[in-house]
């Protein structure tokens, strides 16, 4: 499942992708452990501590499987030239935040199908290990939470992981945008119609219909005294908003089609030569313009990166006035370049643009041709959303 980025706690960086958790994840983790420990206690012929430890391990491994699911999307997207900036766990599962949308029906299908494929592999591995080590009957007893002397904590963990991932697979394959099944449906509609916008509207319409079903089901459960219906209602509401947002985003994308970075960028950015000593850079640029950073170019005008005021001041404060600007370039933002002919849509999911507030447009030789700022992108989008009278 895909969703806009949000603040989260970073856990790790794997294959260049930031992996984190939203604070809502801790609430879901607690609920999972509480419910599982209660159920496992009735199945295992052991102490409460063993049941609790099995529940904790099961919940944590389930969230690991969610991360694997999202990495399926991420690696498939990377093969299509799309970078994944972050993967986050939150209240409703996993989120892969990608730099841009796919550009063909085939790419859309491959990226969307990769996550469910990984989940299906997880199910197969859990079932295979459980059946091979304990037998089919014992695995089935563990799966249906039947009390049995042969049900061990490890077998119970494997059976539950297989079951919950099977449920996740089936839910994700519902052809309702923005679920993976909805994105697969969009890929098929895109292939048939040849129109990504129309395909998105079809998939979003299916997503809205499914959302209303979820909300109605949640209301039905609440009326029958089942508080779990509240989760179905909230999930349905989220999917409904995401489907509606996809329609709006598609309309904007259609209006900005043909607009490139070169159309909105500033063609005369102030740059600092990379061979300039830091002392002169501080006097001639930072003290003069009062800007927090500047783009840096080499003698041929090729873009090298950015230099921040705090790095220059830190170096000059220790007496390194003759050190060159090129030696203290910022290395935390990643690649802040973009092709001057790149479509405006490529800017919409850019993490460096969001964090820095600008990207640097270069030609095929890497020569800096301009700078495009977040404000310029916003103004271009505002013009695209104005309905002609």
- Tell me the fraction of residues in β-strands, as a range: 5-15%
Biggest sheet, open or closed, and with what strands and sense?
A: 4 strands, mixed
Strand order of the largest sheet: 1-2-3-4
Radius of gyration, in angstroms, nearest whole number? 26 Å
Show the helix and strand layout.
Elements (H helix, E strand, L loop, with lengths): L8 E6 L2 E5 L1 H21 L4 H32 L4 E7 L2 E6 L6 H30 L1 H8 L9 H20 L7 H14 L2 H28 L5 H27 L5 H4 L7 E2 L4 H12 L3 E5 L5 E6 H9 L19 E3 L11 H6 L1 E5 L5 E6 H12 L4
Parallel strand pairs: 2-3, 5-6, 8-9
Antiparallel strand pairs: 1-2, 3-4, 6-7, 9-10
Describe the structure.
This protein has 389 residues and is of the alpha/beta class. 57% of the residues lie in helices and 13% in strands. The chain is built from 13 helices and 10 strands. It has helices at residues 23-43, 48-79, 105-134, 136-143, 153-172, 180-193, 196-223, 229-255, 261-264, 278-289, 309-317, 351-356, 374-385; strands at residues 9-14, 17-21, 84-90, 93-98, 272-273, 293-297, 303-308, 337-339, 358-362, 368-373. It has a 4-stranded mixed β-sheet. Strands 5-6-7 form a 3-stranded mixed β-sheet. Helix 3 crosses helix 4 (136-143) and helix 3 (105-134) packs antiparallel against helix 6. The protein is globular and about 80 Å long. The model is unreliable at 1-5 (pLDDT under 50).
